[in-house]
Amino acid sequence: MSVPRRFLTSDKGTFGAFTAEERWPIICQNAVDDIKTEVEELKKAGATQEVISEGLVLEKELAELREEILKNTELRAFTEEEIKIANVPGSFNEYLKESSAINRSWANAEWLFAEVYLYRRINVLFMSKKAEYWQKFDIFDRLKQATFKSSLYGVVELAHRYKNLREQLKTLDVNKESDLEILQILFKEFIEVSLWGNATDLSLLTNITLEDIKSIQGAKAREESEAKIVVNDTDKAWESLLNSTKQSKRVDFVLDNSGFELYADLMLAAFLIESKLASKCIFHAKDMPYMVSDVMLKDYDALVKDLEDREFFPVAVGSEDDSSLNLFASELSNFVKNGSLELRTDSFWTTHLDYWAIDPSETKYHGAEIHKDLMNSDLVIFKGDLNYRKLAGDRQWPRTTDWDVAIGPLAHNGVVSLSLRTCKADVQVALPDGLDEKLCKEWEKDHPGQGSWWCSSGKWAVICFSSGN
């Protein structure tokens, strides 16, 4: 099969075109509004004139970037000064040079490149300021924190779930067949919690005991939760992890969103560590504010503090809620201290390069280094929609294309991978014959002219596994 082209922002009727025309200007305007708010707060707090003046400049520059998008200007190369001050990888200008024969504008470019390029342009504006305050400022932090704060109910429910299971997990033995069945069920549940993030069906998270897990009621809840997962390779991932011959097993997470989704990812990691299915989990975060809500290293630190802060999560001190939140925060800190949980970052994750570049042949922009590192992992979990797009190259594959075809070199270069994705973009593969047509027809009923957008709606999900062999 020939490799199809990537989705363009000029592909009419696609979610990518909608993103470029509607969502990017809104993201920039929200950034302008947040800077206005920040500057006013800085004035009240008695900040230096330099910080305030540079904040006003940022407000103006972000507004100008928004105008660029609205006017559909050509995507310009980064200047030498910008590259130096913001550590912009050379892959961006190389791409623009290679495609210079075609007018690459905001509304006529490969969607994946233009979207990643947008966040690099935003980051350059902040890194170009003299004040350290703005260089370290996350323009999306206010939204990240507000979103996580609004997730109080789900956060508390998950904390209870962990507290109730924690001691019971220590009694299970992966070498006992009866215990193994329970662990497999829990593995599926925590995978789904990580998959759906804020959309998690909390009926899965009731305060049940291990004895209740195999009940008819529990099985029914799981069956209902799996109905919207149109590709589900969880069992393959389970078998692969279980059958790994390594004495110390490592699971990697290439992260997506901060807040509740990161919290859910940490729950999955805690389960893997406590159940001894993994001895170490490594979280790979972004090195700059990215895609609005993506995880940076500082977002993990903020999450742990939020769990312990009764102003942020207002539960009664001394209550069961308080105890559960504090316990999980403490456990995370202990995991980091004893080395069973590690957080890393690398500029590779914020380049426009897709994950076909995670290969020994990609020696320029850390692709070979990332590959070498991930070869030490027993399972690499790629979280979220953007990671799925990068795995499949964001290409116009027929939707029945095999997963191992769509992910290119990663299907055979030794990396064992699992993609957990709620569907929020045009690219979609690995579907059985006839399912896309069925879902398009179903979505079309309530969304005339947008039937194919079912896979951009966030209402369905996929769990795709590759053995790397």
UniProtKB/TrEMBL annotation:
<dbReference type="InterPro" id="IPR039763">
    <property type="entry name" value="ARMT1"/>
</dbReference>
<keyword id="KW-0464">Manganese</keyword>
<dbReference type="InterPro" id="IPR036075">
    <property type="entry name" value="ARMT-1-like_metal-bd_sf"/>
</dbReference>
<keyword id="KW-0378">Hydrolase</keyword>
<comment type="similarity">
    <text>Belongs to the damage-control phosphatase family. Sugar phosphate phosphatase III subfamily.</text>
</comment>
<keyword id="KW-0479">Metal-binding</keyword>
<dbReference type="Pfam" id="PF01937">
    <property type="entry name" value="ARMT1-like_dom"/>
</dbReference>
<dbReference type="InterPro" id="IPR002791">
    <property type="entry name" value="ARMT1-like_metal-bd"/>
</dbReference>
<protein>
    <recommendedName>
        <fullName>Sugar phosphate phosphatase</fullName>
        <ecNumber>3.1.3.-</ecNumber>
    </recommendedName>
</protein>
<feature type="domain" description="Damage-control phosphatase ARMT1-like metal-binding">
    <location>
        <begin position="19"/>
        <end position="439"/>
    </location>
</feature>
<comment type="function">
    <text>Metal-dependent phosphatase that shows phosphatase activity against several substrates, including fructose-1-phosphate and fructose-6-phosphate. Its preference for fructose-1-phosphate, a strong glycating agent that causes DNA damage rather than a canonical yeast metabolite, suggests a damage-control function in hexose phosphate metabolism.</text>
</comment>
